[in-house]
Amino acid sequence: MHRLKITRDKFLKDIQGRTFSDVVNDPEQPFEAVLEFFNDDGRQRRMEESEIHHDRPSLAGVVREFESHPAINRSLADTTNHRSKRLRQAVGVVVRMVMQARGWQKTGRKGSLGVRTPRKGVHFNHNTGGLAFWFIRAERYVRTSGMPFRSVRERCMEL
Question: pLDDT digit string (tens) for 70-84?
């Protein structure tokens, strides 16, 4: 696979990406760090492997490493929940752009990444269990050329 690079310019030209210009242009948001993270070939490969080999959302393949990035973690933990939510949504757009450029398409389904903390008196919007701390679910993708393996559900139906 060729080296794929999502830039600020490409992101802002994307039909969904342009709706997140507030995130891109906010100097307090680590958007450059997000792009640098997802432009890594190894991480892009792990995102694909998450869908192919683990039957999990592509973001599941890199989410722990992503959330452990100091600047990104600080921003996701921002108590102004709206800014954190906007960054998480922008990340979803970056993931879609990467996956589509690598020959994948959205399924229209979401896969779980975590279990949200109960809302009663909680200031932070983080998970109490699951794979991710800040992301609750993520888009699922399939290869446009077809998946190399059948899902467990498909195999069960055959039996």
Answer: 999 999 987 667 888
- pTM here? 0.90
User: Structural domain tally of the chain?
Assistant: 1
Please give the Cα distance from 133 to 137 (Å, whole number). 11
Question: DSSP labels for 43-60?
Answer: HHHHHHHHHHHH-S-GGG
Q: Which helix (H) or strand (E) holds 158?
A: helix 152-158
Question: Which secondary structure element, helix H or strand E, spans residue 128, and what is its range?
Answer: strand 127-130
CA–CA separation, 26 and 144 (whole Å):
35
What is the domain range of residue 27? Answer: 8-158
Residue 3, in any domain of the structure: no
Distance CA 88, CA 73 (A): 11
Q: What residues contact residue 47 under an 8 Å CB cut-off, 6+ apart?
A: 58, 59, 61, 62, 95, 98, 99
Q: Is position 62 within any domain?
A: yes
Question: Within a domain: residue 1?
Answer: no
Closest CA to 94 of 43, 150, 148: 43
Intra-chain end-to-end CA distance of the chain, in Å: 36
User: Encoding tokens for residue 20?
Assistant: 């997140």
